């Protein structure tokens, strides 16, 4: 679109749509990770459970900041 000299607002609209789509994918991946990997680690217990919770918390923090 930039190379085709499209209207700036149209380009920004497409960027916004792509950003929302990527955020939806990230949230889906995070939900799946928490529902499976983190839940399994918590059920098993031990240091792996703590690490998985920290890892998920860090991923959530990155998503919130982005």
Describe the structure.
The chain is mainly alpha-helical and 66 residues long. The protein has a domain of 44 residues. The protein has 2 helices and no strands. α1 packs antiparallel against α2. The mean pLDDT is 94.
Element layout with pairings:
Layout: H1 8-44, H2 47-65
Helix pairs in contact: 1-2
Produce a short descriptive summary.
The protein is mainly alpha-helical and 66 residues long. Helix content is 85%, strand content 0%. Helix 1 runs antiparallel to helix 2.
The end-to-end distance, rounded to whole angstroms, is 24 Å
Summarize the main sheet. none
- Please, what is the average pLDDT? 94
- How much of the sequence lies in strands comes to under 5%
Tally the helices. 2
Which bin fits the share of residues in helices? over 70%
What would you call the shape?
rod-shaped
Order of helices and strands: HH
Rounded to an integer, what's the Rg over CA atoms? 18 Å
The chain-level structural class is mainly alpha
The stretches of 5 or more residues where confidence is low (pLDDT under 50) are: none
Number of extended strands? 0
Name a few traits of the molecule.
66 residues; mainly alpha; 2 helices; 0% strand; rod-shaped
């Amino acid at each position: 679109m930039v190379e085709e000299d499209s209207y700036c607002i149209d380009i920004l609209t497409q960027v916004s749509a792509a950003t929302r789509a990527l955020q939806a994918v990230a949230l889906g991946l995070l939900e799946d990770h928490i529902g499976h990997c983190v839940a399994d680690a918590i059920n098993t217990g031990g240091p792996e459970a703590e690490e998985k919770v920290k890892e998920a918390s860090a991923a959530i923090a990155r998503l919130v900041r982005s």
